[in-house]
Amino acid sequence: MENNLNSIQRKIIHIDMDAFYASVEQRDNILYRGKAIAVGGSPEGRGGVVATASYEARKFGVRSAMPSKRAQQLCPELIFVRPRFDAYKEASRHIREIFSRYTDLIEPLSLDEAYLDVTQDKLQIGSAIEIAKLIKQAIRDELQLTASAGVSVNKFVAKIASDLNKPDGLTFIGPSSIESFMETLPVEKFHGVGKVTADKMKRMGLFTGADLKKLSEADLKTHFGKVGSFYYRIVRGIDEREVQPHRETKSLGAEDTFAFDLTLIADMEAELEKIGKTVYDRLQRYNLKGRTVTLKIKYSDFKQITRNQSFPFPVGDYDTIVDTAKQLLAATYPEDKRIRLLGITLSNFNDAPLHQDKLPPSGQLSLFNFEEE
């Protein structure tokens, strides 16, 4: 194996909770146990989208980010549950406390998943596999929830491993197995390979890591740009990214999907005022100001657009945020359009927050986050 991994081999664990929001709901309400449930959305009207689904619902093809109307078509007995973010955040806090018993090198990706570097663990256990077992058991005992874990020498492989035996799985991919494992991996499983890129690869006859490996780094860069260098390294099991406990927050925002499409500008502006208040409160909490305000709009046909306004100075006051969002909305000529979602984001922060250690990861700053499958 081409081993440029590190002179000191890391021990990385990726923990991913199993159907987190749905599992919390099933834990807290006996009527939901063993039932097909979807957190988010509604069977009435258009009803928004599914945030996550229980494994019972997934058997019918129900997935996160799926319109609730489609979800109910796939599973007529589906139970829609209103999300309780306070409960999910409390469970996440407890899970993070369990992680911290073993290491301080924790990189949260969302409420329900994180990387842990246990190369030098606090309790001197020495075995990443044993630590993963202990964490999984503690989560089961203390929260009555299950998690899946992937263990390897780098972040990429650990994350892939955690998804192999869900739910309640634990998969170890050791150094000697990484390269052969990467060769069998479908191209759509690689970081940075979305549907469009995967389709392009398959048209080129590239279906697995082994196929990608046949191309030189120069070839990959020619076909896929700078990310080609990443593909070249990752298919050989080379991922030198460190676990970062204090990830830089690049943007902060909030959005909301409405129970019914908005058609009146007055209603749209009223919703922007509510969303703007959430953004403002979060900016205050983390002592942030940004130079760019971005408005996100999703229409009833699921077409999505963004519009932004940048300032020569950082802004963070409520009036500027909301007034800018309203102006951006007006510039889209919203009359006679049906809007299902609005969002406001601030970015281009010029100053670090005073309490960087207390910031959540950048992906966790929206009102409504979809869980990964």
From TrEMBL:
Enzyme class label: transferase
Enzyme Commission number: 2.7.7.7
Functional note: Poorly processive, error-prone DNA polymerase involved in untargeted mutagenesis. Copies undamaged DNA at stalled replication forks, which arise in vivo from mismatched or misaligned primer ends. These misaligned primers can be extended by PolIV. Exhibits no 3'-5' exonuclease (proofreading) activity. May be involved in translesional synthesis, in conjunction with the beta clamp from PolIII.
Transmembrane intervals: none
Chain residues that bind Mg(2+): D16, D112
Reaction catalysis annotation: DNA(n) + a 2'-deoxyribonucleoside 5'-triphosphate = DNA(n+1) + diphosphate
Biological process terms in GO annotation: DNA repair; DNA-templated DNA replication; error-prone translesion synthesis; SOS response
Source organism per UniProt: Chitinophaga arvensicola
Every UmuC domain range: 12-194
Family stated for the protein in its record: Belongs to the DNA polymerase type-Y family.
Location relative to the cell: Cytoplasm
UniProt name for this protein: DNA polymerase IV
A GO term for molecular function: magnesium ion binding
Complexes and interactors: Monomer.
Cofactor binding, note field: Binds 2 magnesium ions per subunit.
